[in-house]
Structure formats: C-alpha cells, structure tokens
Amino acid sequence: MLLSLEILKEVLEYLQDDLISLISCLLVNKQWSQVAVEIIWKDPWRFQYRCGNKNAKLEILSMLISFLPKESRDILKERDIIIPQVDSPPMYDYVGLCQFLEFSNVHEMVKIISTSFKCDSTNSLNSSNSRSSTLICDSEAYTIYLIKQEIYKLFINGCPKLKYLSFHDVDAPLPFFEGAENCFLNLYELHCDTKLLPGTLYRMAQICQNLERLIVEECCYDNDGLATLIEVQKKLRYLKIITKGNDDPGNSRYNRYLRIAGAISTHAQTLINFSIGGNFIKAIPPVTIATFENLQILKITFQGKHEDILKYATFPQLRVLECDRVTSPLDILIGFIGRTGGFIEKISFDVNAVSELSLIPLYNQTIARCCPKIHYLTTWFNYDDVTEFKQVLLACSELQHLTVGSYENEDEHYDANLDEFILTLEEIEKELSSESLNLSRFEFRFIWQARFTLLENYLQKRKEKCQKPLSLYFSSSFISSLREDNDIFSKLEQFKNEGLIKDLEIG
C-alpha cells in the first residue's frame, strides 16, 4: 500500500536525527528518496560530526559550492578563483532545500573557495587562455569579500523556505540583497548582535516580522535598529540576550540598553521563554524583566550576583528556573520560589558555596510547599537537616532528577554522607508503602563521605523490584575526596556492568 505524501513526510520526520535510517530510505523508491533528501538537507550541518565520516562537513560545503551560478563563477574568475563546472547536475536542488543558514558555515565555504580554487596568477598570466587584463585591485580582502557576497547571494536567491539565520557579518547587508524579502519573510529563528548597523536591522524589521525565537549573542550597546526589529515582531515567544559592557558612569552609551529594554517590554504579555546573561547585569533593568507575567522559562547566566532580577519579580506561570555561573542570596531565591504559582518543573543552578547554611532547611520546606510538580531539583543534603529534605521527596512525587551538594561555604563545610543519604531514601520509600520514588538520576556535588556498600545494596533492591536503573553523576570534588579508596572506579564500573546503574558520569 502506497502512503500519501503527507503521511510519508510525517512518518519520516520522526527519523530526522537518524541519518543511517534516512539514507536507507533513499533506496526504497523515488517518493521516499525525495522526502528523505528534503529532511536531510533542511539542516545538513547537524550530521557533520555524527555520521562517522571525517570529511562530512567538507563534502556538504563542497556540494553547496557546486551550485554557484555562472554569473558568480565569472565574477570570481576575474579574481583568479576558478570553480569548475560539475560533470553532471545533482539530482536535487540541495541549496533550495536548506532551511538553516549559519554564519560560521558561510565562512568555511569562503575558506574552501579561497584556498582550493585559487589559481596560480603567474601561470595564468603567461598562458594563452589567461584573462585579458590584470586585476584592477590585488587586495586579498576584496577577493574574500566578493566570495562571501556570492555565497550569500546563492542562499538568498535559492532558499525560499529559510527558517534559521545566524547573521553577524557587518560587511554583508543581507536584507538589502535581491531576493531577501522572499528568503527572510518566514524566518522562525534569528541570531544576531548589536554590531550590525542600525540601518541593516531597520531593513530586516521591514521584511521579517514573524520571528518566534530571537538570540542576541553580543549585545554590546543600545541599538535602535535592533530595538525596532524586536518591536515589530508578531509571534516572538523566546528571547535570549548575552550582554557585554561595563559600569563606567562616564560612558552613558554602555550604562543601560534603554531603547532595547523598552522594545522588549512591548512583548511582556507574550514572552514565555527569556534568557539573559553575559557580564553586564545592569544592561536590561530588572523592572523590565519583572513585567513578563506569562513567563514560563527563565534562564540567567550572569557572571556575578543577580538578586535584583529575582528580588521583586513574580512569575505565576513559571515552569523552569535555570541559574548558571551565578550566585544569589538564598533568602531571595526562597522568596522568589514562594511567589510562583506551583507550576515549577525544574530548578537548576550551580551548587555554589552557600553563605547562609542555616537557610537550607527553609529552602527545602519552600520547595516541598510550592513545587508539587517539580521534576528536576538542585538542593543540599546534611543529616542534621534531614527532616526538611525528606519533606521534599515526600511532597514532590514527580521528582526524577536530583542534584544534591554537601553544605559548604567560605568559612566552614560539612561533608555529606552517602550512607545517610541512602538510608534516607529507604526510609522515605517505607513511608510511601505501595508507592515508590520516581527518581531516575542523582548528581552528587562537593565533598561526601562514602563507602558504597549501602549504595550497592540499594541498587540491588531496585533491580529486584524491577525498577529502572539509576543514572549517577559524581563531581570531581566528590571523587577526589575518596582517593584513598583505590577501588572506587572499578566499583562504579562494576555497578554499571551488572545493570545496577544505567549511566555513569564523573566530572
């Protein structure tokens, strides 16, 4: 029975990350081959390191280069760049199938063309078939610029379904290229930065108004063009800004991104995913972030304190809070979690040294009271405060991933004990009686005392109950504290080989 084209596409989409299976589909028939090729080439870059072919990226880029039209080849020929015609045309329009255009891949193509197809100008001039005149300008930079221009023209004129664009090239005003209106009209995701000229971004704002994801990877200063691009979006749901700047009061240009912040605030009702980081925490005022009342995902990656962002904000719909490479007073984090609406599924942060160890029990109590749906949690363990820790596991029945550290700060530390941790788990499971914990992964951070006997017994019991094996992660500090135990690695590997644990990672 033949499948309709729509059903076939839907079926093969499930294989979009399985290159081997997609390649096998090429051999079924013409219809299957067409659909498989479309899926592979909409984003061929995702396979460049996964297909077992060290030359995969070069082959992808070379194939795309072969599509350069005669007009482009003639322009480059005048710069001693000779790109030979292929013997037979490809079976498919691979350029037209591409939906992802990555800045770095364009530069790789430029490098290939400038090195692999550059002819010897001395021999060229001495041959009877050489060009009739010498170069008007012998600038290598100009040659590189022309190569880059022709590559961008190839994609802009040939990709009517472009969904993803990484655009950081100041020298290439892409939205002014012929065909840009059609190419960029339905962009889904754009990566850019504030180094692009405002005029270039104004033009992009005219063309591209249906972005759902916008990533500003180097937000160095206020840029009215970027602000305008943000303002005109009709479907924006995800915004990521990586800030760069400083706090020099004498340089007002870098003090605040007020124009950009104002543009962001126009999407306060519709943004559901916001990520901010970098090294300039004051770039976007916390009061702006606090207006995102329907926010579901908040990720903060500032290199420093970020308490102002969490101190007064209330996000009743929040489901995910991720704080990487940051520190925040624990009382502010506790207050923030307490103001959420009970929908949080993930709280993740680096288990940095906590200055207020006495607040950890209150943190665990807050999680138990306010986060009944949590799946992924970062916390700490000490047997002296085991009551509050147990409250978390008893109240949060959907918890699957637990990152747990020992108590530690600059002045003092208290080693956690793995045996006490395992005993606590067993006590909780007894209290749950017929039910069992849904935990599937543990991550242990900082320094712990461990003998692994109780852990082995606990894992054996899980196996006997036909429970899924756990995944375990041990930080380097955890392992270094056990160096006197020469058998530690062999024990862990033995657990894995016996099927007691699913995955083992040591950081």
From TrEMBL:
SUPFAM superfamilies in UniProt: F-box domain, RNI-like
Ranges in a coiled coil: none
Cross-referenced InterPro entries: F-box-like_dom_sf, LRR_dom_sf
Gene3D superfamilies linked: Ribonuclease Inhibitor
Entry protein name: F-box domain-containing protein
